[in-house]
Amino acid sequence: MKIKLNCKPKAQNMTKLEKIRKQLDSIDDNISKLLQKRAKLLIDVKNIKEKEGIKIKDSKREEFILGKMENNFEKQIFKKILSESRKLQSSKKPKASLQKPYKM
């Protein structure tokens, strides 16, 4: 008796993998563009907070943002985004932090 395994050939799996990775690349590009927009807006936020004497860390705002996350995966990513956002707002030269790295 022969057992028939339900396996697709590697070429088909690789094609499927490549398609999924292409979709992920597109999503990553969109995330990157949105993070760049977010960072530029943070410079405006920094200027307003400095002008009005408001602390950089706003715990209530951060709790609100994290409360909108649907799962731990999103929450952990947003914790990092908020942490980096505070660093950017604390920077003496925030625009320099947004410069593209040198490519070799």
Strand content bin:
under 5%
Q: Which percent bin holds the helix content? A: over 70%
Secondary structure tally: strands = 0
Largest sheet: none
Low-confidence stretches: none
Helix and strand pattern? HHHH
Indicate the CATH topology. Chorismate Mutase Domain, subunit A
Rg, please? Answer: 21 Å
Query: CATH architecture, please?
Result: Up-down Bundle
* Span between termini: 59 Å
**What is the residue-averaged pLDDT?**
87
Number of domains: 1
The CATH class designation is Mainly Alpha
**CATH homologous group name:** Chorismate mutase
Count of separate DSSP helical elements: 4
- Helix and strand composition category: mainly alpha
What labels would you give this structure?
single chain; 4 helices
Please give a quick description of this structure.
With 104 residues, this protein is an all-alpha fold. It contains four helices and no strands. It has a single domain (10-93), classed as Up-down Bundle (Chorismate Mutase Domain, subunit A).
